[in-house]
Amino acid sequence: MSALMDQLKETVAYIQGQCSVRPEVGIVLGSGLGNLVAELKVEKEIPYQDLPHFPVSTVEGHSGKLIFGQLGNKKVLAMSGRFHFYEGYSASEVAYPIRVMKLLGVHTLLLSNAAGGMNPAFNVGDLMIIRDQISLFAVNPLIGKNEAELGPRFPDMSEPYNKQVIVKAQEIAARLGINVHQGVYVGVTGPTFETRAEYKMLHLIGADAVGMSTVQEVIVARHMDMQVFAISVITDLGIREEENIITHQEVLEAAAAAEPKLTAIFKELVQVI
After folding, report:
1. In angstroms, rounded to a whole number, what is the distance separating the alpha carbons of residues 230 and 128?
2. Where's the Nucleoside phosphorylase domain (predicted)?
3. Are strands 180-187 and 74-80 parallel, antiparallel or unpaired?
């Protein structure tokens, strides 16, 4: 058995020794988007630092624990705080928790992130369901020896985000009176926000929103044949006329303001997937 599989099995065994919940749905909460946890009937929380081989989050707005519980009729596992390539982790380490989720029984992954908007139709605080992604600027987490136990050497990425789940989410949003866009998310390494020229270039190649997370998690999830759904909260606008600078504090504030809409959609979506 490979070193990675050994580590994964050790992490999973530790979690199963601590917690009897067998989650079906995994949720990853992005910057400033942690309040969905308040909707959970929490059964167990495990800080990342207690987990063998788990990275530890270093970013403000990411609290750093696995939360096991019940959301409506579903057993869920929420990551409160995610890992980023710009923190100095390898692409494989960034995606490690997603592999753990799958081995714990998770079949569907719901992701959220804070993103910069590049589509002129977007405003700060809007929600964008991610229809597709561009990951040319992020290191692929599957580089290296393929783990055949986890998935194929060359996984198909023609449908990274599950179309049926997207339809369900749009129906829920319409019923709740929440306006949502659909669009393409491009992942970059960060930690700098983009230059004006970079925002324009990313929009020209087909992206509607840009962020520093998500794409590596999605690649690993699809490698393991998990269903994936994701929403970006548009926390700043990269393409606009006036002179502006973007700060992480502003991103967190915009995410917090939009979060009730995101939470409402996720809460109902979990019940129908």
Report:
1. 9
2. 25-270
3. unpaired
- Helix axes of 163-176 and 248-271: crossing angle, nearest 10 degrees: 100
pLDDT at 216 over 80: yes
Per DSSP (E only), the strands in 118-148 are 127-134
If you ran DSSP here, which 8-state letter would residue 161 be given?
S
CA 129 to CA 184: how far, in whole Å?
A: 9
How far CA 194 is from CA of 57, 115, 126, 223, in Å, comes to: 22, 11, 20, 29
Distance between the two ends of the chain, CA-based, in angstroms? 33
C-alpha pair distances (Å), 95 with each of 45, 104, 111: 20, 15, 13
Domain that holds residue 159: 3-271
- Distance from C-alpha of 221 to C-alpha of 105, rounded to nearest angstrom: 12
CA–CA distance from 155 to each of 85, 149, 150 (Å)? 21, 13, 11
Is the pTM value of this prediction over 0.85?
yes
Question: What's the number of domains the chain is made of?
Answer: 1
Among 11-15, 55-59, 94-98, 142-146, whose mean pLDDT is lowest? 55-59
Distances (CA, A) of 137 to 148, 159, 190, 210: 26, 19, 10, 11
What tokens appear for 32 in the block? 């400033």
Q: What is the pLDDT of residues 22-53, one digit of tens each?
A: 999 999 988 766 778 888 999 999 999 899 99
Q: Shortest CA distance to 261 belongs to which of 167, 175, 179? A: 179
CATH number of the domain that 59 lies in?
Answer: 3.40.50.1580
Could you count the other beta carbons within 10 Å of the beta carbon of residue 131? Answer: 17
